[in-house]
Specification:
This protein is α+β, with helices and mostly antiparallel strands and 203 residues long. It is 28% helix and 29% strand. The chain has one domain: Sortase (Sortase, Chain: A, Beta Barrel). It has an 8-stranded mixed barrel. Helix 2 links the parallel strand 2 and strand 3.
Length: 203
């Protein structure tokens, strides 16, 4: 009569561990696929809304609204592009979790790109703003909105703590500030912020 020895118990333990790790791996792949599919659908939807708005006035650019004009949370405001990085992302007003899963988010407490001041846009470092890891001073940024195309030149980049909200301080001239978490390749919660500050070069 055979009995289970230490080797047999260890073998069963390793088999169960292998099964558990494989299950976790498959679950992570499925989660990654669902998240990316949701992100793709969100971008496609927001881009379609922006393109329809831009095409509604093909011969005359609509005048920029007054400063009191309010864009609702969750409404698209334009497309942000960084040509050298081949980056292009739809921007939606709002920076809640649902918005940042499908687009870059305009921080509602900052001016719109067509208004004077420091307009701020945030996105996740592991999705839409991952290319910012390679951004350089003097790179050009373009923000296309229903009220015109606005161009910016990167003035500087810096790494700050989350409480350093001075990077969002008002400015006299039109500026664009991009915000994402840092370090870019950190696994888990990143406790610092990567900032890109750009100044308007729109003529």
């Amino acid at each position: 009569m055979r009995t289970s020895g230490p080797r047999s118990i260890a073998s069963r333990y390793l088999q169960w561990l292998e099964f558990l790790l494989c299950t976790i791996g498959i679950g992570c792949l499925l989660w990654y696929g669902v998240v990316n599919a949701e992100m793709y659908r969100g971008q496609r939807r927001e881009r379609a809304l922006i393109e329809r708005t831009l095409e509604s006035s093909p011969h005359a650019q609509p005048a920029a609204p007054a400063a009191a004009f309010i864009v609702g949370i969750g409404q698209p405001i334009g497309v942000l592009e960084i040509p050298r990085l081949h980056m292009s992302v739809a921007v939606v007003n709002g920076a809640d979790g649902a918005t940042l899963r499908m687009a870059a988010g305009h921080l509602p407490d900052t001016p719109m790109p067509w208004e004077r001041g420091n307009s701020a846009i945030a996105a996740h470092r592991d999705t839409f703003f991952r290319p910012l890891a390679h951004i350089r001073t003097d790179d050009e940024l373009r923000m296309t909105t229903p009220y015109g195309e606005f161009r910016y030149r990167v003035r500087r980049t810096l790494v700050v703590q989350p409480e350093d909200v001075w990077v969002l301080s008002p400015t006299r001239r039109p500026c664009l500030t991009l915000v994402t978490c840092y370090p870019f390749w950190w696994v888990g919660h990143a406790n610092r912020r990567f900032i890109v500050q750009a100044e308007s070069i729109t003529s």
